[in-house]
Amino acid sequence: MTIEELRKIAEAEREAQKKYQHHVCVCIAAGCLSSGGDLVRDAIQKEVVESGMKSEVLVKGVGCMGLCSAGPLVSVESDGKMYAGVTPEEAPDIVGSLDTGAGGPAECPTNVPFFERQKKIVLENSGKIDPERIEDYIAHDGYRALVGVIGEMSPRQVVDEVIKSGLRGRGGAGYPTGLKWSTVAKTGEQEKYVVCNADEGDPGAFMDRAVLESDPHRVLEGMAIAAYAVGAQKGYIYVRAEYPLAVSHLKTAIRQATRLGLLGNDICGSRFSFHIDIRLGAGAFVCGEETALIASIEGKRGTPRPRPPYPAESGLWDCPTLINNVETFANVAPIIRNGAAWFASIGTEKSKGTKVFALAGRVTNTGLIEVPMGITLREVVQEIGGGIPDGKRCKAVQTGGPSGGCIPERHMDLPVDYESLKGVGSMMGSGGMIVMDETSCMVDVAKYFMEFCMSESCGKCVPCRAGTQQMHSILQKITNGEASPADLALLEELCDLVRNTSLCGLGQGAPTPVLTTLANFRDEYDSHIEGRGCPAGVCQGANRNGKEAAQ
Amino acid sequence: MSAKAPVRVKTLTIDGREVGAREDQTILEVATENGIFIPTLCDLPGLSTVGACRLCLVEVKGARGLLPACVTRVAEGMEVAVNSERLDRYRRGILELLFAERNHVCSVCVVNGHCDLQSLALRLGMTHVHFPYQYPRLPVDASHERFVVDHNRCILCARCVRVCDEIEGAHTWDIMSRGVDCRVITDLAQPWGKSESCTGCGKCVQVCPTGALSEKGKSVAEMSKRRQFLPYLTLMREGRR
Known about the structure:
Largest sheet of chain B: 5 strands, mixed
Radius of gyration of chain B: 19 Å
Mean pLDDT of chain B: 95
Distance between the termini of chain A: 81 Å
Distance between the termini of chain B: 21 Å
CATH topology of the largest domain in chain A: Rossmann fold
Mean pLDDT of chain A: 94
Oligomer: heterodimer
Radius of gyration of chain A: 25 Å
Structural class of chain B: alpha+beta
Number of domains of chain A: 4
Number of strands of chain A: 13
Number of domains of chain B: 2
CATH superfamily of the largest domain in chain A: NADH-ubiquinone oxidoreductase 51kDa subunit
CATH architecture of the largest domain in chain A: 3-Layer(aba) Sandwich
CATH topology of the largest domain in chain B: Alpha-Beta Plaits
């Protein structure tokens, strides 16, 4: 494969698509699929055939368009219309309106902040291309970066470009990606691995799933560029088995890329070979921790080990291993294609580029969004999210999943970047963002995340295994209205112990939801303990016991 | 002339004392050599290190957090503190968590007086447990003809798993499930007596720090563990290499 051949494939695909007057894209990613996206696609396809418009209308199944709460979504590329909550019965109306532009079902406006305030890099093809056709990806500049890199750049230049871009790990901790790449590259000529962490497990977060389902080739291209840069020959994608569609799309993509010579032996006629295999996670949250993930790939029990040595030095089968998150790899091709300076011009001083969030909770528009770093939480919640429904007030935003924290309303003008979120006790995390209003009890929220950590603790180290259980039972006592101030003191003591002595990030981060809610909403804890009940009205036990105390 | 790899040495300070070490040694090894006590439960010389019990955490100047001495290699000029008010508090906290997690009743235990957990609690001044006891209902498996596993007394240090895998080469033991539901198991969670891979060597029983694994026919306080075989076997194997 040369750049010229790649261009020819792209042009042929563009020509083929141009023949169709209308492009009807139906979202068949997991969100819309669960509300019948595939039935809608089939109905529209059938309608197109029956009305004799087969040569004019191209019906594609595409990936996530973002507004998951309003699925199934259908977009008509030719006239920029979007329809939400489409049923198979509406197919004739949609197809009938294609030529006349009138008579279709009610449109979903796309000139609203939800769409206009986003900036798409990772999701640029999401909802536009058919994830099961490599030609469609190539027609959208796909694999141009990889072929260009192999033909024109040295591994060192690729690493430098990623360093200059300022890209940081999107898995949560924000470690500089270029630094990680250069460390692995430094380990000299030996067997090395590139691993893609797709074991997304934070409750309510589905960024990586959307990327893998909607644009799998982007991840493969990023991994291949990384492998070229660090000198690896073999790659693994560790994806959770609960994502069957993502796995299926990945398998298809790997097969297609291998057939075109973009993966496999002697890529693009060079001496660079790179093979990718998929490994399925069996549903353990802790396997998202890199050392546990490596143990799991090796066929061992998925438990973390102490670092150092870091995987960059000694990882999979004791070889130097580069582990990056799905979204990190998805950023690589655009950086190479458009240049590090372009990427570095987006975002804040220390946090470059964009971040994908799964917006959920008490907010009007829930779904998948990609925003430039540095946007404020208020903009995300009020403008993109469309504010809080039912005239309620925003109380807090939870970021970072079970290791993250609750950011109170008074910090809503904080820019979304790694340092700012850390500064208020939370973290960027992999991209879960849960909005809470007055009807959310912060103690209950803390208890929910503690229960998650308790049941997902691998059980290897004592503080995480036994400590999360103790903390959870105290939180249970508080929400039942049975706790005393001494229990709260014990909870704080346990938070300090577990945070500072646990082996991996799961245990070290487990107390964070408690600590941030204690720091910002201590009155709610006090109310439960002093018999004044649950202010949000969530904890029935506390309310009942509160009333008894009053009598 | 044979080209011997040079032995590189480092000097560091542990609690203000200057000590020398080979570069491949851990803080724990060097401390033990110099008679400096660091509490451990999962560590046992001769077995691989896992860093799971977190009792050997030490403060290293310049490090981001506390480091487990059993797996942390020495470095030139390293300043290590193994005793501090904070470390004592954490160590006692971890011990208390262990005592509260399962049903450790020393007065009726076969290893009363010979127990690593018990003696560590004494040594670290753990006078009481201020976390609520969880009192889980756990089984005792006495199906093996010579040994018993009592899950009530297991602290999940995985010494049995490691000795069986690394020294005996049988890998009869492993751990199943997650979090507080973790259990040591033989074969694929079969009764020990039915295990086809178990050779009956009893190494697991001897390395077990508590009364979780014991010999049949021993009453309260009658079981003591014989661990001399481990350094001997390790030494012999290293010599053959």
